UniProtKB/TrEMBL annotation:
Keywords: DNA-binding, Transcription, Transcription regulation. CDD domains: HTH_LacI (cd01392), PBP1_LacI_sugar_binding-like (cd06267). This is LacI family DNA-binding transcriptional regulator. Residues 1-21 are annotated as: Disordered. Residues 20-74 form the HTH lacI-type domain. GO terms for molecular function: DNA-binding transcription factor activity; transcription cis-regulatory region binding. Pfam families: LacI (PF00356), Peripla_BP_3 (PF13377). Gene3D superfamilies: 3.40.50.2300, lambda repressor-like DNA-binding domains (1.10.260.40). It comes from Oerskovia douganii.
Length: 344
């Protein structure tokens, strides 16, 4: 006759008993609760024969350890939350890779959520992570309102990777020097003899505005004020070429990739007819044809640094820190024909 299992009784629509506990496993194996705890924890003081009996009892009952409850008793969940605007830009996911690697090295796991560029969803996901008592939050989004960031920072350490609308007390930041990156793009195109350079940007977010300001400042520095032109990502590239623009600096690699696609559809040669520079140096840059010249952000390092700042907060640091990392330009075939990647 089959023995009934705690935690699994009840018919299809009947009640379900609570999950089996350490006491249930102890009774099933004929040992004490403390011995079960030691065995399942891997304590060397338990004989292998007894440990195996306890493991079989746990398997028979469908017992699962409650890691969250155990970690709460220790004062840490060893969980970090990562909040993204969306998953459609490799820039975000490549930062998360850095977060996960640094977290793993420090003994933490990472819970990932994204809001599909919806502020309401992002705020809801933020509350969910906080309700799970994560030890810290990495926010890879500028879409969260300051009030939500401020409230979250009162409950757990928060680091924002990216440019916020304004400084938020209690929130550390890791950013890229966007104005410098834009200047690198303009200087490169001017150095190639492209004096009419357009900037493609579909964003009014802080990073996009900073890159636009950097583009405009660099154009003025080169005496090209009259050539400044900022357009949305949907502008027909053929119109730009017809108007005499032979260089384009895009806000990010996604928008640059669209430019390459549109140029191909219209029979334009890149870079002969139009030289294109992106921003982020994401995986897209290395997969485009021609390969995309792009401003490199150290995305992995940005994620790692975010975790380092969280750990400092957990260690007792009280003052805010704002880290700005320098970009560099990686030159490829979208601006120099046949050029293999180089760092400038």
């Amino acid at each position: 006759m089959e023995r009934s299992r705690p935690g699994r009784s009840g018919g299809e629509n009947g009640p379900v008993n609570p999950r089996p506990t350490l006491l249930d496993v102890a009774a099933h194996a004929g040992v004490s609760k403390s011995l079960v705890s030691l065995a399942l924890r891997g304590d060397p003081g338990v004989s292998e024969r007894t440990r195996e009996r306890i493991r079989r009892a746990a398997d028979d009952l469908g017992y699962r350890s409650n890691a969250l409850a155990r970690s709460l008793k220790q004062g840490r969940t060893m969980l970090l939350g990562a909040v993204l605007s969306s998953l459609d830009n490799p820039y975000h996911t490549e930062i998360v890779t850095g977060v996960e690697e640094a977290a793993r090295e420090a003994g933490f796991s990472v819970l990932l959520v994204h809001g599909s560029r919806d502020r309401g969803h992002l705020a809801g996901h933020l509350d969910t992570l906080l309700s799970l008592n994560v030890d810290g939050l990495v926010v890879i989004s500028s879409w969260l309102e300051e009030e939500h960031l401020r409230a979250a920072a009162r409950r757990a350490p928060v680091v924002m990777v990216g440019r916020p609308l304004g400084a938020v007390d209690g929130v550390d930041t890791v950013t890229n020097d966007d104005a410098r990156g834009a200047a690198l793009a303009v200087d490169h195109l001017v150095g190639l003899g492209r004096s009419r350079i357009a900037h493609v940007s579909g964003s009014a977010r802080p990073a996009g505005l900073a890159r636009r300001a950097g583009y405009e400042a660099a154009m003025r520095r080169h005496g090209l004020t009259e050539e400044i032109r900022v357009v949305g990502p949907g502008v027909p590239v053929a119109d730009l070429v017809e108007d005499g623009y032979r260089g384009v600096f895009a806000r990010n690699d996604v928008e640059a990739f669209d430019l390459l696609d549109h140029a191909h559809d219209r029979g334009l040669c890149v870079p002969q007819d139009l030289a294109v520079v992106g921003y982020d140096d994401s995986a897209l840059a290395r997969r485009a044809r021609p390969r995309l010249t792009s401003v490199h952000q150290p995305r992995g390092r940005m994620g790692e640094l975010a975790v380092e700042l969280l750990l400092e907060r957990l260690g007792g640091r009280g003052e805010d820190r704002h880290e700005v990392l320098a970009p560099r330009l990686v030159v490829r075939g979208s601006t120099v024909p046949g050029e293999s990647p180089s760092e400038r």
